[in-house]
Structures are given as structure tokens and as C-alpha cells.
Amino acid sequence: MNEVNLSPLLLDERLLTILEQVRILSKKQVRNLRSGEQPSRRSGGSMEFLEYRNYQPGDDPRYVDWNVYGRMNRLYIKLFQAEKERPVYILLDSSKSMEFGNPEKLFLARQIAAATSYISLANQDRVGLVTFDHGLREFRLPEKGRRVYLSLVNLLNEVKPDGETDINTVLLDFLTRVNRPSLVIAISDFLDPSGFKQGLKACSYGKHEVVLIQVLDREEVSPKTDGYVRMGDVETGKARSFFIDQRLRDAYTASFNRFITTLRSFCLERGFDYFMVNTDTPVEEVLISLFTKGSIRA
User: Which domains are seen in the chain, by residue range?
Assistant: First the structure.
């Protein structure tokens, strides 16, 4: 897929080369981002019967063929053809809060979305892209192929930050449209006053594989501001004046760290992958970490 031309605003040729190297090296890893359409053998879970094998201790008795047992007095397990492929949905937060940062959080989030699309499509996966703020803005159903990648990159280049965030509403609406278990990669700062638990719980009920990538600016995690300041909510426009000293900074940092810990723990409890990235981290380091160190496999 190297021949696809990208806008330099997202991934240049140097980053594409890094992604290709990561993709090739990661093939040696045990777990892949997706397995493509390679068939596998397992018991149950498909309409297409494959073959029998002898029952082994620990096998699920629901898949024993009791008719065969009645005729032959031997236990056999029915094997089925299983399809491993799940569509990949990339959910990109394009709310106003993603405008914050230097560079802005949305810029890094779009780079991550482009890289994830590139890797997934190169692995013959079907990829869909969803942008959101307080509701779903753009909803592209999963497709595969080079032309799809170019279309997704063009869409990413057009995304502008706007609106307030409502993660719970967005995820619940998304799940009404997506019935098939999918790989759901949500890229956001997750800074939503209404929370995130309801929507993420619903993802686990739908048997989706979920990856959360939290994009933050260093100033949000550990602010350096001093003295009297007037601070505004970029999404609502509401502003307040503060006198910021070391004690207030320490209290804020402790509260923000509790929020991050809560989100991370919530993901761990439900088997979701969680990854936090900062806007001041070189993008090549971010991409290599995402695709080689546990959250997403290429």
C-alpha cells in the first residue's frame, strides 16, 4: 500500500515507511490487530460444519454429538468453520475540547486514525470511520481496499473540532447501528463531564473488542500556570477566574490522575485495551508504541 499518496498533514512518507516496518515486524508477534479472513477450527459458533474429532477432557459438552454417541458409544465433538474477521470501526472524537494542545489533540488523534486505517486495510480488514461530538457526525460503514484508505484520509483531513462531547450518547447510538461484534477503536480525550461508563458497558454487552486511546496535552495532565487567570470551557464557553498556586495545582493534578486511573481500571475490568498518549510525544514514538506494546497489534 506504499503507493497511496497521503496529505503531509497526517502521515508523510517517513511515517508510512515506519508503519510498514512495524507491520512486517509485528507479524512475528503472537497476537495481531486482525487475522483477516483465514479460517480456523473451533467447536460451535458457526453454521458451517467442518468435521468430528474425539472428545477431550475440558471440551464443552454442548458440542458433543449425542446421536453418534448413541450409535457408537463414543464421544465426538463437532467442529465448525469459524470466521475470524471482525470489521474495524475507528471512532474519532472531533468535539471542541480536542482543539486544545500544542499541537492540538485532534491533529494527533487524526494521525492515529490514519495509521490505524492504513495497518488494518493492509491486513485486508474492512474499516469504518465514525466522527462524533455530542452525537454521531460522520458514519462510514466498513470497507476494504486502497481506494477506501484514500477516502478515509480525505475525510480525516476535513475534520474540524466543534461541539460538546457526549460519549455515552454517542456509543449507545453507535451500538444501535452496529449489531455484529466488531473491533471498536475509540480515540478521544474522554473529558466528558457526563462520564463514559454507560456507553462503554454497552460495548462489552455487544461482545465488541474495544481499544481506548486517550489523547491528552501535557498541560491538562500537569499544568504549569501561575497567578490569576480566567479559564473557559472550550465546549460550553463558560468561564471562571482563579488564583492558581502550587496547592491548587497539586489538588488538580491529584484529581486528574484519579480520573485517568478510573478510566484505566474500568477498561482493565472489562478486558478493554487502554493507551494514553500525549501531544508532545513524537508521533513516530506514539505509533510504534500503539502497534507493538500491547494496545493495538499490526
Answer: 13-34+86-292 (3.40.50.410), 39-83 (no CATH)
Q: Which residues, in sequence order, are CB contacts of 52 under 8 Å at separation 6+?
A: 65, 68, 76, 77, 78, 79
Cis previous bond, 103, omega within 30: yes
Parallel/antiparallel/unpaired status of strands 39-43 and 76-83: antiparallel
Question: Residues of the chain whose pLDDT is less than 70?
Answer: 1-9, 25-52, 58-60, 79-84, 227-237, 239-243, 293-298
Cα 60 to Cα 77: distance, rounded to the nearest angstrom: 9
Residue partners of 271: CB distance under 8 A and separation at least 6: 204
Distance CA 62, CA 58 (A): 12
* Cell numbers representing residue 184 in the block: 471498536
Q: Taking Cα atoms as reference points, which of 39, 91, 48, 42 lies closest to residue 62?
A: 42
On the CB side of 237, CA atoms within 13 Å amount to 2
- Phi, psi (5° rounding) for residue 254? -65, -40
The candidate with the shortest Cα–Cα distance to 93, out of 111, 104, 109, is 109
Q: Name 298's Cβ contacts closer than 8 Å, sequence gap at least 6.
A: 19, 22, 23, 26, 27, 32, 33, 119, 123, 291, 292
pTM: 0.75
Q: In what order do the strands lie in the sheet with 39-43?
A: 39-43, 76-83, 49-54
Q: Of 122, 177, 129, which Cα lies nearest the Cα of 144?
A: 122
Q: How many residues does the chain have?
A: 298
* Residue 55: Cβ within 10 Å count: 16
CA distances (Å), origin 82, targets 27, 47, 50: 21, 9, 9
Query: What's the rounded Cα separation, in Å, for the pair 40 and 83?
Result: 7
Contact 254, 187 (CB under 8 A): no
Neighbours of 162 (CB within 10 A): 14
